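Researcher: For the annotation table, I need structure tokens for Helix-turn-helix domain-containing protein. Please keep the output clean. Sequence:
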Amino acid sequence: MPTSTPPAPSASPAAVHGLPLRQLLMSLGEPLVELQAAPAGLDVPVRDVAILDPEDPATASPGELVLAIGARGRAALPALRAAGRAGAAAVAVKLDAPGQADALREAATEAGVALLSVRRETRWEHLDSLARAIIAGPDAPETPEHNAGDLFSLAQTIAVLTGGIVSIEDTSSRVLAYSRSSDSDEVDDLRRLSILGWQGPEPYLSKLREWGIFQHLRSSDSVIAVDPHPELGLRRRLAIGIRAGAQPLGTIWVQEGAQPLAPLAEQALVGAARVAAAQLVRRRREVSADVRLTQTLLIGLLEGSTGPQSLATHLGLDLRRPATVLAYAADSPGEGRALELAMGEVTGLISVHTAARHRSALLAPIDSRVYVLLPELPAALPMTTVRSWAQEVVAAAGEHLGIRLRAAIGSTVDGLAAVPESRAQADRILDAMGRGGVGLDVAALIDVQAEVLVSEVLALLQDRPGLRDPRLSALMEYDRRHGTRLAESVLAWLDALGEVRVAADSLHIHPNTLRYRVRRAEQLTGIDLAQPQQRLLAMLQLRLPAEGPA
């Protein structure tokens, strides 16, 4: 039967009376779950979370959010019907294909129970911990689950960047989140016992106190290394305190596995500690609301729909200090891996790296790109410094995630009011890089000025057919219909400035073949390539993609 914990006598009012489904969905947010059906409305109370294992009989209890683990798509129909009969609040299920939602929505409507679809990359244990923390509310007693959620994702990001095994603990050495480990042989005794008991075992903690580790973590922002002690079952590890000003909030531990930690592990930990601090300053619901507001204001500023004053007031930023925008885009990671999942991993990596370099950095994913606002920059910060930060992120994404990132550096502007200009320039650079012909992974406008302008002219020609020469369009159509390569040959000849042998070599054809193709193109279209203006337009228009299948 589903695993669920009945409310304890000291449970919060939300856990006893139920949290409206509407409020739970607002707190969980669209990135985790999506509402598919709510036949009883959004005010049904959610009192608890139940995990339904696929081998268990389909049962539920009133007011439960049932997590149908392992029952993808239509396999979740029994769980939906059982939840409806029992008066459960909602059922969460993962879908294998978009078309499965229709049958499940129909079943949920008939059963009178809400249906939530869970993103495929979401880990069930994260959703379970986060939903329980939200239902418990800010007045509930502290538990390891209370600050879970995003901390698990952060722990996994740190593990990827450092090459180690990560745990995040509070000031009482209680485990709040930890990374996955594929090889149990790499885990030492301290890690194993801490995870099993959700708290570091006292004999080990006393040794860490004796060695002065905890004193350092409480009083310093720097990383400390703990030497291996095989006689105690301890491997080498790094640690850093999570702090808000002088207030200690917890600790991040990275245990070394079978391989040495990454060379930049300490730098990654500095950024991770700052990201973790933002998540631990306030309780889960307060943090969620604050993060959503910050994201809304930041996206509004980047898009130019919201002025800078709101964001500056919310975060205490100086409106007049220099700022710049970095924009990142990922090449498709290929088959078997959703780009959305990849971008989620990239976003975590960018946030940790950027926080390590600039304390006030802000990050916002918009569509398929990730934008980083660097406010309050030093007036004399060299472009080479920002470029090196972006290059670190690109290199880390390739090394740790196997994803090729492109990064564009927007102009440095005089204050937050001009941030939309910096974002627009970063987008122009990324657009040009995405069209090809730019052999750089990180670029500012000075690096790709010509490519950006040509890219924008091509985009104009693409969007406005009336600006094109119909004779060149007819040449491309002729190639499409007859399987010839006249347009390609003309473009190669133009790019080579009329050097026939150079152009022929680039196409792997004989020079006489190239000469014939160029003459044939002029005969078919009436174009005079001796005219500079016609050559210029041909060099541009023939770069447009051919339309329609061959």
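Researcher: And a one-line annotation?
Model: The chain has 21 helices and 17 strands.
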